[in-house]
Design a protein that fits this description.
Chain A is mainly α. Chain A has 13 helices and no strands. The longest helix of chain A has 30 residues. The C terminus of chain B is likely disordered. The chains are: A mainly alpha, B mainly alpha. Bound molecules: protoporphyrin IX containing FE (HEM) (2 copies) and iron/sulfur cluster (2 copies).
Chain lengths: ~240, ~500
């Protein structure tokens, strides 16, 4: 195994561990922290299935953002949907045999790399050009966009310009996933793929310690996930129960 | 009176999003509570050495108690969608009045002391140490948020800056840096029973006066009872309803509706206040203590139902929290929701047809309606989501022929705050109140010009008081603002009432 390969083995094991354990702990924290009062932003659904629908519209259509600012919605939504499609397509680097739907959309979905990059560029432009957004921007907010742009651009270049040895990449990750180090191939050394993988590792590591927590966070937001039924049901948290004695 | 030491914004056809003016409202600071008022609420009297550590400890405590706080502080992606949604930003141009920037005042400290990135890379993620300057900013800007929740409507994760403001105020209260206006008032509720500090005998006098007024006007003996054991309904209403204009005309209206509906009802001297400022200061304990008075009053008087009068935040606490804080209300009649809003009651009677209404009695008015934030975005009326918008309008349209809504982006869930909610209805924040009212005033001005609107109805004591003060700054009459039940009161013909027609005829006869 080359030094690069060993480094990537270490990187991806560590990054995966941080991502999984970090996210699990965060989600556990959100789960365990009580929501002592009913605070859905009304008008809110009066049933649990209504809440599921509201959440679905938030996650799939970014409904609130749409009400809010059309440009941010456009760029943000395009970026996210392209991102999910790209990730879906990426399953083929990890599956053996490749799941039929993944294989089916693969040829088409590769073009979504452009949508993803355009969305990110739009968000970056807004962040730098609109004075209000610039005011609330910390360096990490810019770096986050650059990181994703870096991943997207290197990926797109590999796909459309300078191809890499996809078979080797896949084989490497299959070996990683099955903890099989004996026949582990070397990762390709073309700079685009190396940078792509390096940046992905960084993304995985910062995911649970950054604002990317919005992905699990949205599901735990009391103003969006609560049923509007406070007159019918009491909603006393454990710590508040102690006040009742 | 309407002479200002600050520049009153000029009204525009549409509320434009202003360019930032850094520090424009840094000077706005409401008075700090004196130690005795702090202690009455079980808070520390004043700041003491080592307050920094106390802040961090209390923040940790609240993070463990409120999922909202924990999730909201983590989840914001700084997308900026909320930045132009706050009336205080639109009116003052101060960037720290943009909802996300207001949250960031707390978030940057949270990040510094509670997150990996903030501990090791503070500059990168905008985390800062807790200093006196930071605390002063908190005090200033968390008392420039009316907790109206407009930002939460537009945030992709529903991040509610009101929750952050409440947490910040609770932390400041606990370390001895409370706000005079809110804490003094809560103290009065505990000592005397209501925000205005009106003792029981004064209330009785006032109510007798109302009975006389209504009798003189209509010839009908409508009762305004207090502490009447065995009445069916306990009415809990904001204390402004007892005497201030236009609030009191609303109270007169509730009495007429109850009278015509043929139900017995009573006020309570113990729970002679619907307002619950415990919410404004984010204090679960105080909010609960204030709510318990209502439970106790209901038990002592042996009523079967609880109805709330026209008040915005009080209705949010009542609708959303009362059952949780002071329930279960299994001793009340299970046929009715607990509590009910007076408008739910009145609309119900209108549908039953028990009220005799002559709409033409309001023909001199062209009305619009101001959705109060806490009713619009923190509660409901009726059984359907959005009943908080339709029921008040249905009632207004049932008693008035002329009604127009303001622009769609300024009503319903997108309504703009009056500028005085959330514990900011104090003279020491006058500049903020006037400027924060601008978006609402813009929309109002528009319907005045286009549709000849003469009056605006509201169902919140704070909105009514705020508009009464602020309208003159914008060159409008303070009496433009009306209670919804004032309109009902105008149009209702009581059984056995000497009607206007009779009066007119006799007037004509005399002429
Ligand atoms: C449940 C899944 C997710 C939902 C519902 C969601 C939703 C959103 C929304 C509504 C925004 C604000 C609008 C915008 O700026 O685009 C946003 C921002 C953002 N999201 Fe997500 N997201 C999800 C997952 C992810 C994932 C997996 C990533 C990255 C790997 C990500 C990265 C970002 C970034 C970087 C921003 C900030 C964009 C900016 O700087 O303007 N999101 N997300
Ligand atoms: C361990 C994880 C990943 C591996 C092994 C990986 C590998 C690859 C490979 C081999 C390609 C080139 C495909 C070709 O030439 O046909 C590619 C392309 C691409 N990658 Fe990744 N990638 C990973 C994670 C990600 C992530 C997290 C993102 C997005 C944030 C991303 C975005 C892209 C894009 C946009 C393309 C170009 C379009 C496409 O081929 O679908 N990749 N990636
Ligand atoms: S709750 Fe209302 S006042 Fe407070 S930041 Fe949000 S929009 Fe502004
Ligand atoms: S809309 Fe929500 S996520 Fe976007 S900046 Fe405002 S608070 Fe943050």
């Amino acid at each position: 195994m080359s030094f690069l390969t060993i480094a990537f083995v270490a990187l991806f094991y560590i990054a995966t561990l941080i991502l999984v354990v970090g996210l699990a702990r965060r989600i556990r924290l959100y789960w365990k922290t009580p929501a002592p009062l009913k605070i859905p932003t009304t008008p809110a659904p009066t049933t649990q299935s209504g809440v599921a629908l509201r959440m679905f519209r938030e996650v799939v259509f970014f409904e609130s953002l749409f009400k809010s600012t059309k440009w941010t919605w456009l760029f943000g939504w395009v970026f996210h949907m392209a991102l999910f499609a790209v990730l879906f397509r990426h399953l083929r680097y990890f599956q053996e045999p490749v799941w039929a739907p993944v294989a089916f959309v693969s040829p088409l979905f590769k073009y979504l790399a452009f949508a993803m990059v355009i969305g990110l560029l739009g968000l970056l432009a807004r962040r730098m050009l609109v004075d209000r957004v610039r005011y609330i921007t910390a360096p990490s907010d810019i770096l986050m966009l650059l990181l994703l742009l870096g991943i997207g651009v290197t990926g797109a270049l590999t796909t459309f310009v300078a191809h890499t040895d996809v078979v080797a990449v896949k084989s490497f990750f299959r070996h990683l996933m099955t903890f099989n180090f004996e026949t582990m191939p070397n990762v390709p050394t073309d700079p685009l793929m190396v940078v792509h993988l390096l940046l992905v590792g960084v993304l995985m590591i910062i995911f649970p310690i950054s604002k990317l927590l919005h992905a699990p966070g949205v599901f735990f937001s009391p103003s969006r996930n609560q049923v509007d039924n406070p007159r019918e049901q009491r909603h006393v948290s454990d710590w508040a129960k102690k006040l009742e004695n | 009176m309407a002479k200002a030491e600050f520049e009153v914004p000029e009204l525009t056809e549409y509320t434009e999003v202003p360019k930032l003016e850094v520090g424009a409202m840094a000077h706005a600071k409401s008075f700090v509570a004196a130690p005795e008022f702090q202690q009455a609420l079980n808070f520390k009297g004043e700041l003491q050495d080592g307050w920094e550590q106390e802040v961090i400890d209390h923040m940790g405590d609240l993070l463990g108690k409120y999922r909202s706080l924990q999730v909201y502080l983590d989840s914001c992606v700084k997308c900026g969608a909320c930045t132009d949604k706050c009336h205080y930003y639109l009116g003052t141009k101060d960037p720290k009045n943009m909802p996300v920037a207001r949250q960031d005042l707390l978030r940057k400290v949270y990040r510094r002391y509670f997150t990996f990135a903030g501990k090791y890379f503070p500059k990168l993620v905008g985390a800062t140490d807790l200093t006196r300057e930071v605390l002063d900013d908190w005090y200033s800007y968390f008392h420039q948020c009316s907790q109206c929740r407009r930002c939460s409507v537009f945030c992709p994760y529903g991040i509610d800056t009101a929750e952050i403001s409440m947490a910040a105020r609770e932390i400041m209260d606990r370390i001895g840096l409370g706000q005079k206006y809110c804490n003094e008032i809560i103290g009065k509720v505990f000592r005397i029973g209501n925000n205005l500090g009106l003792p029981g005998p004064a209330l009785e006098d006032t109510l007798e006066g109302l009975e006389e007024d209504v009798f003189d006007e209509t010839g009908v003996e409508v009762k305004y009872p207090i502490d009447q054991k065995g009445a069916e309904i306990l009415l809990v209403t904001p204390s402004a309803d007892f005497f201030a204009e236009p609030h009191v005309d609303g109270l007169i209206g509730y009495g007429k509706v109850f009278h015509e509906a043929g139900v017995s009802w009573t006020l309570s001297s113990k729970a002679s206040e619907a307002a619950n400022f415990g919410m404004f200061i984010g204090s679960y304990e105080n909010m609960r203590r204030i709510s318990m008075r209502i439970r106790e009053a209901a038990l002592e008087l042996g009523v079967k139902r609880i109805v709330f009068g026209e008040c915005g935040h009080a209705w949010r606490v009542a609708y959303s929290f009362l059952n949780t804080l002071a329930g279960p209300f299994d001793f009340l009649d299970p046929k009715y929701p607990v509590p009910q809003h007076i408008l739910e009651f009145t609309w119900g009677e209108m549908q039953k047809g028990t009220l005799n209404i002559d709409k033409s009695l309001n023909d001199d008015l062209v009305l619009t309606y101001h959705d109060s934030c806490n009713v619009a975005r923190g509660s409901r009326m009726g059984t359907e989501p959005g009943g908080q918008f339709t029921i008040p309008r249905n009632v207004i349209k049932a008693v008035c022929n002329n009604f127009v809504d303001m622009a769609p982006e300024t009503i319903h869930e997108k309504t703009f705050c009056c500028g005085g909610g959330g514990g900011l209805l104090t003279d020491d924040l006058m500049e903020l109140r006037v400027k924060g009212a601008k978006p609402r005033m813009d929309a109002l001005q528009n319907v005045i010009e286009e549709h000849g609107v003469t009056n605006m109805a509201a169902i919140c004591a704070i909105c009514k008081a705020q508009f009464t003060k602020v309208l003159p700054y914008y060159g409008m009459g303070m009496d433009m603002i009306m209670s919804v039940h004032q309109l009902v009161s105008n149009a209702i013909i009581l059984t056995g009432q000497v009607t206007e027609d009779d009066d007119d005829e006799s007037a004509e006869d005399a002429a």
